[in-house]
């Protein structure tokens, strides 16, 4: 019988790391290759196949007919609609062809069946470009009264790309019970997939000859020559540690370097940390970017390069390069190498260590005493005491004048709460000979770590020859921090707003206002810097959310028994919120079934990180690669995931492939037309949205080469080729007050200009790559853009902090602000899995599948935005509740039966009346 495709739902992403997680990295002699084999770590490493599962803790009397030893727990596989549904685990990295494995499982059954139920052990074998096959191992009759031991063995003549072990068999409706599973191999050498009999541990370095004690054995040159040395340059260069180092010489390309093939020594879905000690030498280059890179060749010969880490190397000292990587599939070849410096420059390597990454200790929530939310930390804001507390930064002149606004800037009003009117006095700064000169104040002792501070002020400039930038900046020791930025082109007062947070203790923190060109006078009034009370803001947003994302619902029951329904108990449960919550995914993610499970369970929209971009689909002219996008689209279609198309073009010159940049005007116009035709016709009707020309506020490659009208023509042509998708503009820093190029006002002008020239712009994309988000600032941008009446989507949200709790708070700000705003119609995260995101410390799930605090916060909000209700049918045969938009299930429970019906709550102004015929 053909079995359902396995897209397993991992129900235990928030469990602790498996205590047996390292077992697959070593010898498998008499070692159980099943992880978490007795379910002591919940369902970690196990996945229910199209059903549900949970673990019954030790000493529970959940199934009274079955006794367990003290301290034992077991898994219950339930809600099984088919006999083949059960519990599975991927064992690919633990098995090898030609070896014999023995299987022993302690199993039972429970539920509505007579006599005994058969439990079957099965292997699912997945081969590239061929049909999936199933291998029967053994079966055992299990009863409700006692545990049974299922035993069998298997051997594989060839090694599939994926091997999944699972238990199945009892009839539909019956629960499958599993107490333990053992799969062992009697021969240590036969079962070691690396082909050696050595035992490795998590601490073992998988690099052979890492310090060149055996010359350059196991090392080679990638397009260059390699040699080992005990010293160079007349003894001026010696190893930092050990006796030897290696050199990569005669390099003619930046990608030339020293390499080692590590095929068979890296295991899929394990995170590895890489540490190299290296430097450069020769060619009169004193400093260069040095990169660690992984070359991976898949079983289907598809090739990819994974950047591990980079460091600025010098010719003076050894430097340490550190990074992490993870491989999702079982590749046919993996090579690690160093690259990067200019041709002719030697790369010197002292040692290289690659080992299974240790788990980072979980963050602790920051302890902040006396936060004083809403209290301004700036001294003498009102200037009642002249310029006391202030000083001029640089050789400029400060004075106090009158005539500035008396009202607080709008973005600060809600955050500050009760406050006094402003004094109307302002600081006038004249004789500015540099753009960084302006009023300053030291705030070192007033800033508390991990608090998010909002910045607000009125600013104005004197006579200038053109638009001028004004910036509230912070000097944090030697680092510049942006506290807000605005562009001014008139003589009016303007609101400036922004935010910042300091997460490491600083010796000196100074705030100063800067920006206009030398000679331009600067005026500043009512500068406020204060910590924001996010919890108070969240309470407001919850009320706002209920108004726009929920609807009153009345269920009216009818049927043959409707007259006797008064007082009948009913339960209403929301199955799914219809609001789009999506994420970026990539083709390589699809090889990790844990990633797939989390994504399918917790998101209903997708966007491809790179696979649809022009530089990916046509890296070389005329050589097309749509295979990755096709496979991602097929995955999303099978799992009812809607997809955004990102992106048709990208205006930033650095993202445009070299062959496109080399074209003359006529050939470029032809290439643009071919790109539109090829992409839009191939995927006609497949994508719900398209980002037509990404980041037009920050780049102008096509406009500079082809004229301003090309942007409008891109929209027009895309619409002509495919009428169905909504066509979006998409840009960053729109929502945070930190970038004068993409302020909400400029974004509005940009959109209106496109529309006035005939571009069918149908949606506004705000990327959402944000630091220290502040609700009122984000909301202000949304309010301004909402005037256009177009749907707004957050298209690429990510937040970054070393501390998971701070990251979780930042993410909650963005999700709540978006979900509570009536103009926002969707939220896309720019990834969620560690090592597969563009920003560090932005992930929700760690590399090996552990949910961190930010991930828990995301799931908590998703749960909060589901409605559940219960009660009794009234005498009119009705039941009323208020619920979020989405799909629902209602259970009507009478003395003799339980009736289940499904319904949908869609958007609407008035109460929704739903008739349910029983």
From TrEMBL:
Residues 1-24 are annotated as: Disordered. Keywords: Carbohydrate metabolism, Hydrolase, Polysaccharide degradation, Repeat, Xylan degradation. Pfam families: CBM_4_9 (PF02018), Glyco_hydro_10 (PF00331). GO terms for biological process: xylan catabolic process. SMART domains: Glyco_10. GO terms for molecular function: endo-1,4-beta-xylanase activity. The keyword Repeat applies. Residues 559-861 form the GH10 domain. InterPro entries: CenC_carb-bd, Galactose-bd-like_sf, GH, GH10, GH10_dom. Residues 9-19 have a biased composition (Polar residues). PANTHER family: ENDO-1,4-BETA-XYLANASE 1, GLYCOSYL HYDROLASE. Belongs to the glycosyl hydrolase 10 (cellulase F) family. This is Endo-1,4-beta-xylanase A-like.
């Amino acid at each position: 019988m053909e079995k359902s495709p396995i897209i397993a739902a991992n129900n235990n992403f928030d469990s602790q790391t498996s205590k047996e997680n390292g077992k697959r990295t070593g010898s498998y002699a008499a070692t159980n290759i099943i992880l978490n084999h007795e379910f002591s770590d919940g369902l970690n490493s196990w996945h229910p196949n199209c059903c549900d599962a949970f673990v019954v803790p030790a000493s529970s009397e959940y199934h009274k007919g079955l006794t367990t030893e003290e301290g034992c727990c077991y898994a219950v596989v339930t809600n099984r609609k088919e006999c083949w549904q059960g519990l599975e685990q991927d064992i690919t990295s633990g098995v090898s062809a030609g070896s014999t494995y023995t299987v022993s499982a302690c199993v039972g059954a429970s539920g509505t069946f007579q006599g005994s139920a058969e439990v079957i052990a099965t292997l699912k074998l997945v081969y590239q470009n061929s049909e999936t096959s199933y291998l029967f191992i053994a079966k055992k009759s299990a009863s409700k009264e006692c545990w049974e031991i299922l035993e069998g063995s298997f051997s594989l003549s060839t090694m599939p790309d994926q091997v999944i072990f699972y238990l199945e068999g009892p009839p539909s409706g019956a629960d499958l019970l599993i107490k333990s599973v053992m799969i062992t191999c009697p021969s240590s050498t036969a079962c070691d997939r690396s082909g050696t009999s050595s035992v490795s541990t998590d601490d073992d370095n998988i690099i052979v000859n890492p310090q060149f004690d055996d010359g350059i054995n196991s090392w080679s040159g990638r397009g260059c020559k390699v040699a080992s040395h005990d010293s160079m340059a007349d003894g001026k260069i010696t190893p930092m540690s050990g006796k030897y180092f290696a050199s990569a010489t005669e390099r003619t390309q930046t990608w030339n370097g020293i390499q080692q093939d590590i095929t068979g020594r890296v295991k899929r879905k394990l995170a590895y940390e890489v540490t190299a000690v290296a430097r450069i030498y020769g060619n009169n280059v004193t400093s260069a970017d040095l990169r660690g890179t992984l070359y991976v060749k898949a079983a289907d010969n598809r090739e990819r390069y994974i950047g591990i880490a980079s460091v600025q190397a010098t010719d003076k000292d050894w430097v340490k390069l550190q990074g992490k990587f993870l491989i999702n599939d079982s590749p046919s070849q993996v090579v690690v190498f160093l690259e990067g410096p200019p041709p002719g420059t030697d790369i010197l390597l002292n040692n290289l260590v690659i080992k299974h990454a240790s788990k980072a200790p979980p963050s602790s929530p920051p302890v902040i005493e006396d936060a004083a939310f809403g209290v301004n930390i700036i001294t003498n804001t009102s200037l009642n005491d002249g310029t006391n507390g202030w000083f001029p930064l640089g050789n400029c002149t400060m004075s106090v004048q009158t005539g500035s606004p008396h009202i607080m800037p709008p973005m600060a009003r809600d955050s500050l709460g009760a406050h006094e009117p402003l004094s109307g006095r302002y600081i006038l700064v004249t004789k500015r000979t540099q753009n960084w000169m302006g009023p300053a104040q030291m705030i070192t002792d007033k800033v508390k770590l991990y608090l998010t501070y909002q910045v607000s002020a009125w600013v104005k400039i004197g006579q200038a020859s053109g638009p001028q930038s004004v910036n509230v900046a912070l000097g944090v020791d030697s680092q510049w921090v942006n506290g807000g930025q605005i562009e001014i082109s008139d003589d009016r007062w303007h609101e400036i707003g922004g935010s910042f947070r300091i997460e490491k203790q600083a010796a000196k923190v100074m705030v100063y206002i800067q920006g206009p060109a030398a000679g331009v006078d600067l005026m500043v009034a009512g500068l406020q810097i204060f910590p924001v009370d996010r919890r108070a803001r969240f309470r407001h947003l919850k009320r706002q959310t209920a108004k726009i994302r929920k609807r009153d619902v009345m269920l009216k029951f009818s049927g043959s028994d409707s007259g006797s329904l008064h007082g009948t108990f009913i339960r209403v449960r929301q199955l799914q919120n219809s609001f789009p919550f999506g994420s970026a995914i990539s083709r390589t993610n699809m090889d990790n079934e844990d990633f797939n499970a989390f994504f399918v369970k917790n998101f209903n929209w997708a966007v491809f990180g790179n696979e649809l971009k022009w530089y990916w689909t046509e890296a070389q002219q005329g050589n097309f690669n749509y295979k990755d996008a096709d496979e991602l689209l097929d995955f999303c279609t099978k799992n009812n995931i809607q997809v955004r198309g990102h992106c048709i073009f990208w205006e930033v010159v650095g993202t445009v492939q070299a062959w496109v940049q080399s074209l003359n005007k006529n050939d470029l116009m032809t290439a643009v037309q071919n790109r539109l035709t090829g992409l839009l016709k191939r995927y006609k009707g497949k994508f719900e949205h398209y980002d037509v020309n990404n980041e037009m506020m920050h780049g102008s490659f096509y406009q500079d080469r082809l004229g301003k009208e090309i942007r409008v023509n891109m929209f027009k042509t895309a619409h002509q080729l495919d009428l169905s998708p909504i066509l979006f503009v998409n840009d960053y820093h729109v929502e945070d007050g930190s970038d004068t190029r993409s302020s909400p006002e400029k974004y509005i002008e940009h959109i209106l200009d496109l529309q006035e020239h005939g571009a069918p712009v149908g949606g506004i994309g705000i990327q959402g790559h944000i630091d220290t988000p502040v609700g009122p600032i984000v909301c202000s941008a949304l309010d301004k853009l909402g005037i256009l009446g177009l749907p707004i989507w957050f298209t690429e949200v990510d937040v970054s902090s070393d501390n998971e709790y701070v990251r979780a708070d930042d993410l909650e700000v963005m999700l709540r602000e978006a979900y509570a705003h009536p103009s926002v119609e969707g939220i896309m995260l720019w990834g969620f899995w560690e090592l597969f995101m563009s920003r560090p410390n932005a992930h929700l799930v760690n590399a090996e599948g552990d949910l961190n605090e930010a991930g828990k916060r995301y799931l908590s909000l998703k749960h909060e935005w589901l409605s559940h209700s219960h009660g009794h049918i009234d005498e009119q045969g009705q039941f009323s509740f208020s619920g979020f938009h989405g799909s629902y299930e209602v259970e009507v429970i009478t003395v003799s039966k339980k009736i289940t019906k499904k319904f949908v709550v869609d958007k609407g102004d008035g109460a929704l009346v739903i008739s349910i015929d029983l």
